Amino acid sequence: MNRPEIAEKAVRLVERRISRDKWPEYYDTKRARFIGKQAHLFQTWSISGYLVAKLLLANPSAAKIFVNEEDPELANALLSANPRRKRGRKGFKQPFHCMNCEAKKRATRQTCPNFANIVTGLEA
């Protein structure tokens, strides 16, 4: 935001091409020599991005509307009002299929009696 000359140069470059190229979604290559192979034309965000850039160059103080100052009191009130924030995270249990259990059912490492023997290779 402190280097308007770069923004002015970018807008000048865009002004020469983007309208003639039918407002493409994106350009290929670093130098933007080609319109992207699958780029859609007449894109609203291409047009609006250009217009916003022009307006911000004309009035740089308008950039304040894009910067939000967080109100810590409001953020704390929202966090305390959310019931999901009060619960702790559930532990992650990785399921696996134990081939050695007689039931041959899905089990967790904590519930399989053969898990320690399978991992260490001590099972007979």
Automatic annotation (TrEMBL):
Q: Which GO terms describe its biological process?
A: sucrose catabolic process
Task: Tell me which GO cellular component terms the UniProt record holds.
Answer: chloroplast
Question: Which residue windows are transmembrane per the record?
Answer: none
What the entry lists under InterPro entries is as follows: Glyco_hydro_100
Which UniProt keywords are given for this protein, alphabetically ordered? Carbohydrate metabolism, Glycosidase, Hydrolase
Going by the entry's taxonomy, the superkingdom of the source organism is recorded as Eukaryota
The UniProt GO MF terms for this protein read:
endo-alpha-N-acetylgalactosaminidase activity; sucrose alpha-glucosidase activity
Q: Identify this protein by name.
A: Beta-fructofuranosidase
